[in-house]
Amino acid sequence: MIFQIPWKHAAKHGWDINKDACLFRSWAIHTGRYKAGEKEPDPKTWKANFRCAMNSLPDIEEVKDQSRNKGSSAVRVYRMLPPLTKNQRKERKSKSSRDAKSKAKRKSCGDSSPDTFSDGLSSSTLPDDHSSYTPSCLERDSLSLAGS
User: Fold this and answer.
1) What's the rounded mean pLDDT across residues 19-44?
2) Is residue 67's pLDDT more than 60?
3) Residue 42's CATH number
4) Would the pLDDT of 130 be above 80?
5) Residue 128 covered by a domain
6) Integer Cα distance of 64 and 112 in angstroms
7) Is the CB of residue 126 less than 8 Å from the CB of residue 6?
8) Is residue 59 included in any domain, yes or no?
């Protein structure tokens, strides 16, 4: 199963913490790294922590050729993988550390931002306002996605 997450850059015109960082804020609250009123909002850190969490999951991988890194419709596209056995997790872990070293050496550039993704998703499938993405909304959507 493939899903996409809005990934608009905070320095871009029109970025709004309540619309564009609500998923990252919800993740920070869920993990205990942010409590409203106790700390200053830090969407840059929330986003980085969420990205690291997604990258560390063994059954989720980013579909880089379908992700859009620039513009107001920037998204990260991820794929859910079948659960891994214990041996497969070990193999993947050693492979991912090798991949990270080779990526650091060859840093590739380029904007691969197709108008329509190969699975039929398009930029028009994302609403401009993401403030309705609340923890209860995310749970409901997770349940409906799990049934897909």
Assistant:
1) 94
2) yes
3) 1.10.10.10
4) no
5) no
6) 9
7) yes
8) yes
Q: Average pLDDT over the chain, rounded to whole?
A: 74
Total domains in the fold of the chain: 1
CB 85 within 8 A of CB 102: no
Single pTM value for the model: 0.59
Dist CA 145 CA 95 (whole Å)? 29
Q: What is the pLDDT of residue 62?
A: 95
Residues 33-51: tens digit of each pLDDT: 999 889 899 999 999 999 9
Q: Are 53 and 30 in contact (CB under 8 A)?
A: no
Q: Which of 104, 112, 130, 126 is nearest to 26 (CA)?
A: 130
Domain of 28 in residue numbering reads as 2-80
C-beta atoms surrounding 38 within 10 Å: 6
Residue by residue, what is the 3-state secondary structure of the chain?
Answer: CEEEEECCCCCCCCCCHHHHCHHHHHHHHHCCCCCECCECCCHHHHHHHHHHHHHHCCCEEECCCCCECCCCCCEEEEEECCCCCHHHHHHHHHHHHHHHHHHHHHCCCCCCCCCECCCCCEHHHCCCCCCCCCHHHHHHHHHHHHCC
